[in-house]
Amino acid sequence: MKPLAVIVPAFNEAASIGGTLDALAAQTDTDFTLVVVDNASTDDTAGVVRGYAAPFPVEVITEPERGAGTAADTGFRHAIEQGAVLLARTDADCRPAPDWVATARRYLTSGTELACGRSVPRRDEQPTFAERHVFPAVVRLAALYGRYRSAHRAAGFRTPYVLVHGHNLALTADLYRSCGGTAREPLEAGSEDVTLLNRARRHTDRIVRAEDLVVESSLRRLRAWGARRTLLWYWDRRWLPPTSSQVHVR
Q1: Contact between 32 and 5 (Cβ < 8 Å)
Q2: Mean pLDDT across the chain
Q3: Are 5 and 87 a contacting pair, CB within 8 Å?
Q4: What is the rounded CA–CA span in Å between residue 111 and residue 132?
Q5: Greater confidence, 164 or 150?
Q6: Whole-angstrom distance, CA of residue 69 vs CA of residue 27
Q7: Closest alpha carbon to 89 in 81, 78, 15
Q8: How many other CB atoms are there within 10 angstroms of residue 125's CB atom?
Q9: How far apart are the first and last CA of the chain?
Q10: Each residue of 136-149: pLDDT tens digit?
């Protein structure tokens, strides 16, 4: 079986990452290595991970430069150096579905080079009707708009734009290396998941929107910022929080 690594960037997630670890431990496929990237945390995120009794190998590495993309890139490249051929990423406040790893492996071993999964609200956060249905529908409409933006239809792209979430994607190590990987940039500078997608689209047409690759994501950003500001944030950072600490709600 091809070696698979799960990458989890984490910044001050001591209170939340235990749920992520539980969700990964409950996978139907636990034949993977977990790489948690401690992204300059000031709490005991690393200690919580190291103390967890996981049914798979766990590595904790450090990336001192803050940024989800920077931390993810460090984790991906570390995993590749350690021999991973298949890669999947989620975040430290997310809960992957029990078949998440198995589904990612199935896509990546059947010809897909990048699978962009589906995000749903975390059930334990008791989402409202609007959070469960209305906001995701608006996000999907925004992604449809993104499909027709001139910047996403430039010459050189080998496949159409699809909705992508940084906390739920899987790709091959070969594609990661060839396309240049995730952007190492501050969180407020841009959407590292869209950058990765567009880099990959210049190298392959084997990119799919994988509706059965499911992760439950936290509502904390939406609840902290509100729907309008959150949507503007995702729309090319047209709204930015006033302080750096507020930027790193992730």
Answers
A1: yes
A2: 93
A3: yes
A4: 32
A5: 164
A6: 25
A7: 78
A8: 17
A9: 33
A10: 888 888 778 778 88
**Range 143-169 burial, b when 16+ CB lie within 10 A, else e:** beebeeeeebeeeebebebbbbbbbbb
Model confidence band, residue 92 (pLDDT cutoffs 50, 70, 90): very high
131 is written with which tokens?
Answer: 């959070």
Residue type, 213: L
Answer whether 230's CB lies under 8 Å from 130's CB. Answer: no
Six-digit token string for 93? 């406040």
R_g over Cα of the chain: 17
Place of tokens 């539980």: 22
Sign of the C-alpha dihedral computed for residues 21, 23, 28 and 34 taken in this order: negative
Q: Any idea of the CA torsion for 59, 63, 67, 69, to the nearest 10 degrees?
A: -60
- DSSP at 32: S
